[in-house]
Amino acid sequence: MLFSQWLLRMKLCKHCSPKCYSTLIPSLASFNRNYPCKDSVISSQISIARSVQTHNSEKGKDVKYDILEASLKHVKNHGWSDTALKHGIADLELSDACISMFQLGGVEIALHYDKTLNEELEDMMAQQQDERLPETEPPPIAHFLKDAIKTRLELQLPFYDRWAEALALVVSPKVVPRATEQFAHLIDDIWFYAGDKSTDINWYTRRATVAAVYGMTELFMLQDESPDFADTWAFLDRRLADLEKMGENRLELEKELRNVGDITKAAFIIARNMLAR
Q: What number of other Cβ atoms are within 10 A of residue 197's Cβ?
């Protein structure tokens, strides 16, 4: 998700657990003694603690997760915003003060949704691996990569109209570390289930190349008006074919990436090279 927004910038510039109530109160009391002017803050935190305690005792689930899930229902009308979070909190009949649990604001809904889809894809790939008979040959790498990338992008179609907005939000300096971590984990999962067991520079190079292909395809998809995104999947085929051609210059590519140190930056370099072909 994050990498796609970096690609968009490149294209535009190419011409130039909540704490238990019982343990929270003592610390709040101490805080109140030291900062008596913070009564409103204390009241807000107590309201959150009571609300969380009631919610957890009734449903036995993580309250932040539940709020984010409830907020997804409001994204189509309000975007990945604090307003959507507030509606999710209201749906669960929790304290309005629970909004302060989300330090990144509404973008946390997008990060939550992104992570949920990554986990869903991982479960699907694991199930396919478990169902494969021992004597059955695994699918060709290129076929597996296409299927994994296509499936992951299709999973986010319910929020297709709002996905460009999500990409724009995750480039905030406060959000980048978490978004990058989730993206790197997604790419690593894809290669793991593709059967990659490399431990040398190939491990790094392979993940950077697939990250580049994924990011470019995601960006292309946002502009695609063809039926069933046929042009997007054709674009994906061409980019995977480009990877095979780039393999002919593998040593040069590895040399260029060796000191980059970040999979997203490495993917950016590869995408730049592909677009310059």
A: 8
Rounded to an integer, what distance in angstroms lies between the CA atom of residue 94 and that of residue 91?
A: 8
Give the rounded percent of residues in the chain with a pLDDT score beyond 70.
65
Contacts of 162 (CB under 8 A, 6+ apart): 75, 76, 79, 80
**Residue 103 in this model has a pLDDT that exceeds 80:** yes
The tokens describing 31, both together, are: 């805080």
Closest alpha carbon to 179 in 276, 118, 114: 114
Instruction: Tell me the C-alpha distance between 66 and 85, whole Å.
Output: 11
CA proximity to 229, closest of 142, 160, 180: 160
Reference 210, options 233, 194, 199; nearest CA is: 194
What lies within 8 Å, CB to CB, of 43 at 6+ separation is: none
User: DSSP class of residue 198?
Assistant: -
Query: Which residue in the block uniquely carries the two structure tokens 């002017």?
Result: 37
Strands (E), the chain: none
Closest CA to 112 of 150, 149, 73: 73
* Nearest of 55, 60, 169 to residue 112 by alpha carbon: 169
Q: What average pLDDT does the segment 217-221 reach?
A: 93
Q: What is the pLDDT of residue 250?
A: 54
Do residues 89 and 55 touch, judged by C-beta distance below 8 A? no
Amino acid sitting at position 226: S
